[in-house]
Amino acid sequence: MRTDVTIIGGGFAGTAAAITLARANRSVVLVDDGKPRNRFSEHAHGILGWDSVNPIELLRRGHAEFESFGGTIVQNPAETLKESRRDGCRWSVSLADGRDIDSPHVLVATGITDVLPAVHGLPELWGSRVFHCPYCHGYEVKGTNLAVIGGENPGFTFNITKLLTKWADAVTFFPNGLELPSQECALFQALGIAIVDEQVLEVGPVEGGGVVVRTRNLQLPFESCFTGPRFEPNDELLRGAGCDVVDGWVRTERGLTSQPGLWAAGNVISSPDQVSQATGAGAAVGIAIDQALFAETLP
User: Model confidence over 10-41: pLDDT tens digits?
Assistant: First the structure.
């Protein structure tokens, strides 16, 4: 299979780029494994005109739009990304089913993996009763009695704990193995954040909503719960292709990596990207790819 652009990752960044390029009369193949980062969430927020939309439903509509503009979706994981030997193509993407897609340009938008603290029950409530982003879900927990569970990503966890006091009536922080620096401890005290320095053994649902946090000695109910996961970019394909990495992230300039014709957008290169940010980033990189293709045809 040969196409102008292969896009690996059918989430919001990849789909926005795919639509932009298809509307620019480019042949585009969108390779999607069907596992977007926010598949665990019931609702997405901060999306102009679509607040509280189910993210999977929104992606389904985006995929249908892409196909209506002539795009092709391949529901299959991409296994390898390597230099192509075919004339006019820089890159070859090998799929799990054995097919290859050759193209002069490839966009990788494979997102990020949220690694949660090792607390029993936490994965089952992730995205429905346990969250991580105050700007995605802070408004929905306004006025509640809220718990924050530590254990991964200290700096991020400390920051969201402080920020959540803007919305919640009460915030209780469980370090859960994290060492709270004295400066942070003083700020927590000034903000009225309660600290329960006991290992969290389990998090469970409360009938009617909310969660219960269990330690060895306590069983405390809360109306809402947050935690700070460790963010691991799904950038194996980019690293395998020889892209430069800076401070643990693949380096890009306007979406272009250090490798010619190889691009990246969304959470795979930027952990804070919400749906609206990822969509905008994808569209912007799509435009950059189209203009690079156009420049390559000029005499």
Answer: 999 999 999 999 999 999 999 999 888 888 88
Distance of CA 286 to the CA centre of its chain: 18
DSSP letter assigned to residue 42: S
Report the relative pairing of strands 145-149 and 170-174 from DSSP bridges.
parallel
The DSSP annotation for 89-158 comes to -SEEEEETTS-EEEESEEEE---EEEE--S-BTHHHHBTTTEE--HHHHTGGGTT-EEEEE-SS-HHHHH
| Alpha-carbon distances, residue 147 vs 171, 190, 195, 299 (angstroms) | 6, 17, 10, 62
Sign of the torsion formed by the C-alpha atoms of 110, 116, 122 and 127: negative
What does the alpha-carbon distance between residue 7 and residue 268 come to, in Å, rounded to a whole number?
A: 13
Round to the nearest angstrom and report the end-to-end CA distance of the chain.
Answer: 27
Specify the pLDDT at position 124: 95
Strands of the sheet containing 145-149, edge to edge, are 130-131, 224-227, 145-149, 170-174, 194-195
Compute CA distances 86 → 108, 249, 257, whole Å: 20, 30, 21
What one-character DSSP code corresponds to residue 37?
A: G
As given in the structure block, the two tokens for residue 131 are 């969250």
Tell me how long the chain is.
299
Longest CA–CA separation in the chain, Å: 75
**Strand runs labelled E in 186-228:** 194-195, 200-205, 211-215, 219-222, 224-227
Q: Which residues of the chain have pLDDT under 70?
A: none
Record the pTM: 0.94
Output the CA–CA distances (angstroms, integers) from residue 180 to 1, 151, 152, 230, 266, in the order listed: 54, 11, 13, 17, 31
Q: Are 15 and 66 in contact (CB under 8 A)?
A: yes
